[in-house]
Amino acid sequence: MPEQYPVRTAPTSARLHESLRRAAARGARAGGALLAGLALAGSALAAASGVVTIVDVESGQAGQATVLRGVARFQLAEGVPLREDDIVEAGAQARLLRLEFGDGLSVSVGPASRVWIAPRLPGERGKAAPRFYLLQGWAKVDAPADGMPRSAFATPAFDAAGAIRAVVVAVSPEGAQVFAEAGEVRLQVPGAGGSSTASTLKAGELWSRSGETKAVLAPRPTPAFIQRVPKAFLDTLPARAALFKARE
Fold first, then answer.
1. Contact status, residue 198 vs residue 168, Cβ threshold 8 Å
2. How many CB atoms lie within 10 A of CB 223?
3. Residue of 67, 136, 150, 75 whose CA lies nearest to 105
4. Half-sphere exposure of 76 (CA within 13 A, CB side)
5. What is the pLDDT of residues 105-115, one digit of tens each?
6. Three-state SS across 169-180?
7. Partners of 230 in the β-ladder
8. CA pair distance 180, 208, nearest whole angstrom
9. Of 115, 105, 118, which Cα lies nearest the Cα of 68?
10. Which of 76, 143, 179, 193 reaches 20 to 30 Å from 234, CA-CA?
């Protein structure tokens, strides 16, 4: 059953809190849902928000890569299409999940992480949904050469946009960190009373915030951050989505 995560009142998301509450309620109703393979059918991939292209988990660790869809939870496999409002979950024994989208964007998901795909936000009809919402854990975003299309993504700690090329994000109850590996990242960080502050990271910079303390911007990643980054994020991975589209 998915947990309810504390979500900030921020740009994009006072309303996201209500959506998370509803997602948690769906999970409660689905408590007895059986893990099962999610089949590709017909033109499902063409209509999807993305596709899972890598599922790398420790041997014998079934259930370490799943997706919560509506009132059911399914085990992920390579080639499974993703849809708006899916919540992708990587367990502690998952080494890497790779999500790819039709416009060239890819998101690598690290261990003990949860990613909400294009959440539909009540009351924001007509506005572009965040591409994804990192509920917790690690994600690495790689955008095509012309930058991240429909650029926004979000976390409980900030909204992100900008001329993103490659960025590594970590989110936990204790705080959040963002490393701009390439390109530029603009963060909108919530404050008291519904206010927010903006912060811009240039390539090579590391943004860190612990709890409600003031964020710190460093000119380079710290040794402690580098040590915590999932090892799979250090590899350059080729796009694989076309392999699964060809199987339709």
1. no
2. 8
3. 150
4. 29
5. 899 999 999 99
6. EEEECCEEEEEE
7. none
8. 12
9. 115
10. 76
CA nearest to 167, candidates 117, 201, 121, 212: 201
Give pLDDT, residue 124.
55
**pLDDT digit string (tens) for 158-184?**
999 888 889 999 999 999 999 999 999
Tokens of 12: 């994009």
Q: Is 218 helix (H, G, I), strand (E, B) or coil?
A: strand
Residue 148 to residue 151: CA distance in whole angstroms: 5
Please list the alpha-helical segments (H only) found in 105-240: 223-228
Phi-psi bin for 16: left (phi > 0), alpha (psi -120 to 50), beta? alpha
Q: Would you state the pLDDT for residue 126? A: 56
**Would you state the pLDDT for residue 149?**
52
In the three-class reduction of DSSP (H, G, I as helix; E, B as strand; rest coil), residue 131 is classed as coil
The number of angstroms, rounded, from the C-alpha of 156 to the middle of its chain's C-alpha atoms is 11
The pLDDT of residue 14 is above 90: no
pLDDT(69) > 90: yes
- Per DSSP (E only), the strands in the chain are 50-57, 65-69, 72-75, 81-82, 87-90, 94-100, 106-109, 113-117, 132-142, 153-154, 159-161, 164-172, 175-183, 185-190, 196-201, 206-210, 216-218
CA 12-209-107 angle, 5° bins: 55
Contact 140, 133 (CB under 8 A): no
State the pLDDT at residue 170. 98
Q: How confident is the model at residue 150 (pLDDT cuts 50, 70, 90)?
A: low
Determine the Cα–Cα distance for residues 244 and 248; give it in Å rounded to an integer. Answer: 7
